[in-house]
Amino acid sequence: AFITGGGIGINLGIARNFAAVGANLGILGRSQDKLDTAAAELRALGARVSTHSADVRDYAAVETAMRRCGEELGLVQTLVCGAAGNFPLAAEQLSPNGFKSVIDIDLLGSFHACRAAFEQLKQTQGNIIFISAGQAFMPYAFQAHVGAAKAGIDNMMRNLALEWGRFGIRCNSIAPGPIEGTEGMRRLAPGGLTDQLRRLIPLGRLGTPDDIGQLSVFLASPLATYITGTLIVAD
Ligand code: COA
């Protein structure tokens, strides 16, 4: 499995769950320090791990990472497009460049990873999992940039499911609810907001990175061979 943004948070939780079922892992992120810490944790679970310090906005760097990962660990069978950027800001205060940064990281970065992984996924008849968000289908205050990026990802997911189905490649999105301990939650629900949020959630708790990791393993597994073009909400 190759996971963009795999050094922390939900994406590291996904990596942990893939390691638990015997996968080897390529993880890509901007900070080599975070990747090294994550790799040590994943190796302790028995995985072989390659780390790739790169920005998903840089196609050449993503392409190089994907090729090197394939050489080191074998062809990619599952791609997880998890790298994302977010900061809450009122639309009238958001600069065009701030809007563009989130679109570039989330949407363009996801396309970069898919495009770079295509030849490997074609050979493995692999699958792609996109990490979306509720902002893609419901308006949230101060999230115009994020909602646009995530809605774009889900639309691209359906188009790739349509176009790449003939190669045996499945594509699906997961929209996680609030996941505890993540950078996203620190940015979006600081302080006491988390307790208010918990009271609104029928299950009475926030999600964990493992909740999303387990769903990801399911979607990548032989249990899900006829599921493609679908968005699954786990909230
Ligand atoms: N409030 C307002 N504007 C902001 C901002 C904030 N908190 N953070 C960045 N911006 C704007 C900048 O002002 C800049 O626009 P400008 O040139 O008009 O001033 C633009 O966004 C790009 O800023 P920059 O710092 O160069 O962005 P970056 O590309 O290095 O970082 C971000 C990308 C902005 C998404 C940053 O928050 C990030 O790196 N996030 C990664 C981690 C993350 O968000 N995780 C949560 C995932 S849910």
**SS-derived structural category:** alpha/beta
Give the strand tally. 7
Q: List unreliable stretches of 5+ residues.
A: none
Q: What portion of the residues fall into strands of 2 or more residues?
A: 5-15%
Mean pLDDT: 97
Enumerate the distinct ligands. Answer: coenzyme A
Can you tell me the overall shape? Answer: globular
The neighbouring-strand order within the major sheet is 3-2-1-4-5-6-7
**Cα distance, first to last residue?**
24 Å
Total count of helical runs of at least 4 residues: 8
Instruction: Please trace the helix and strand order, writing H or E for each element.
Output: EHEHEHEHEHEHHHE
Please state the CA-atom Rg, rounded to the nearest Å.
Answer: 17 Å
Word description of this protein:
- With about 240 residues, this protein is an alpha/beta fold.
- Helices cover about 50% and strands about 15% of the residues.
- It has helices at about 10-20, 30-45, 60-75, 95-125, 145-165, 185-190, 195-200, 210-220; strands spanning about 1-5, 25-30, 50-55, 80, 125-130, 170-175, 230-235.
- A 7-stranded parallel β-sheet has the order 3-2-1-4-5-6-7, sandwiched between helices.
- Helix 4 links the parallel strand 4 (about 80) and strand 5.
- Helix 1 (about 10-20) crosses helix 8 (about 210-220), helix 3 packs parallel to helix 4 and helix 4 runs parallel beside helix 5 (about 145-165).
- The longest helix has 29 residues, at about 95-125.
- The protein starts with a strand and ends with a strand.
- The mean pLDDT is about 95.
